[in-house]
Amino acid sequence: MHKTGLLFYNRVMTSENKSILLIITGGIAAYKSLELIRLLRKDGAQIRSILTAGGAQFVTPLSVSALCEHPAYTDLWSLKDESEMGHIRLVREADLIVVAPASADFMAKMAHGLADDLASTCLLAADKPILIAPAMNHRMWAHPATQNNVATLRARGVQVIGPDAGAMACGEYGPGRMSEPEVIFNHIHSFFFNTDQLHGLKALVTAGPTFEPIDPVRFIGNRSSGKQGIAIAQALHDSGADVTLVLGPADEPVPAHLRVIKVHTAQEMLAACESALPADIAICAAAVSDWRPAEFQEHKMKKRSDQSPPAIALSENPDILKTLSHHKNRPRLVVGFAAETHNLLDHARQKLKTKGCDWIVANNVSENVFGADENHAFLITSQTTLEWPRAPKAQIARRLVQQITEFFHDRLESHKAAE
Ligand SMILES: Cc1cc2nc3c(=O)[nH]c(=O)nc-3n(C[C@H](O)[C@H](O)[C@H](O)COP(=O)(O)O)c2cc1C
Q1: DSSP secondary structure letters along 88-156
Q2: What is residue 209's DSSP assignment?
Q3: CA of residue 165 to ligand 1 center, whole Å
């Protein structure tokens, strides 16, 4: 980040020339794998796919083939494919094997070395790294048989992504949801490119809205979904940082491996952030309410037809970004977010000065950003403005983490030079 002026987005490594064998097994989450294929193809990866008989009940070989731009494989007994030992070739050509979703049944087969269909036969013949993204009902996940199978697979070096906790297709709630396609994509990406560059660094990330209570049923809140902040926490984790995510009341699923402190109000958020210090990096992506009701009404305020609507007196909330920027335990890199509806860059540059942080990520929230899966952002420092065109939030997160990596790399290099 030494140049000045408006730069276009920085180059990020893509999965071009990487070959992935994707196995889709029989779970509802199979539909999410179509999005995973789309993300990987957009990133330049070559994908060969296998659908188990169960997988083909949930997504069609035609959809998978069309998205992969290559026919999906389904049959171990295919005269055409197996005349050339297709299952061995599929494994041989892959740089990485991904099973998403990984059903309870399929993990059991993997753990016990069964090989009674094309997918399980490939895996038994595989000498390539394997990533699995389990997806199932929370009781199937918690069952000792499944837990033993996962432990066996982990012990053999299989990387397990998720599952997340959250609402399930069956109407129940708990751990078992497949991780979101962006999260799996990030894992795949960091499998190829990540060299744990932020290993040894502690990062604090805030995300989501804050809810400031008026009375037991009402609050002042905002539309932040937490998606961008969660994606940043994930991307930092993927790069080897030790991450604490301080999360306001957001519905967005959070990868189970992230350390999360859940809060409601700005005051709670500040306290949680301070408890996570010292840290090397602080990313304040949460949309913190500037004000809170000066008084909390213990009982629900009643509407009275003989009275005009009540005036709600407001108090100022703590400024978390400013507090962290001037803290005695100030992280070496403090990054704020500016959500603006107009004069985006001017407001963001002003914010950089008044808060005392190092960088601002600015996004125009009138561009359908809240709750969306994509973002269009600018990274503003005292010297540069870098534009990141509209892209999945996970990709924006990776771009930010790449800049963070360069920042710490540059510091390390200048320390070395000074020695
Ligand atoms: C509607 C429906 C949804 C299912 N969802 C899941 C699921 O999310 N995870 C899972 O492990 N099994 C799920 N199953 C059961 C599997 O599809 C079943 O165990 C199947 O044998 C898996 O085959 P495979 O692992 O070879 O693909 C579901 C079954 C049905 C009928």
Answers
A1: HHHHHH-SEEEEEEE-HHHHHHHHHT--SSHHHHHHHT--S-EEEEE---HHHHHSHHHHHHHHHHHHT
A2: B
A3: 18
Do residue 152 and residue 210 come from a single domain?
A: no
Residues 157, 217 share a domain:
no
**Encoded tokens for 419:** 């020695």
Q: Between the CA of residue 31 and those of 101, 109, 311, 345, what are the distances in Å?
A: 9, 22, 49, 39
Q: Whose alpha carbon is nearest atom 18 of ligand 1?
A: 26
- Output the residue whose Cα is nearest ligand 1's atom 29: 27
Domain total in the chain: 2
Specify the ligand 1 atom closest to the Cα of 57: 17
Per-residue confidence band for 8, with pLDDT thresholds at 50, 70 and 90:
very low
Is 170 in the active site?
yes
Decide: pTM greater than 0.85: no
32: left (phi over 0), alpha (psi -120 to 50) or beta: alpha
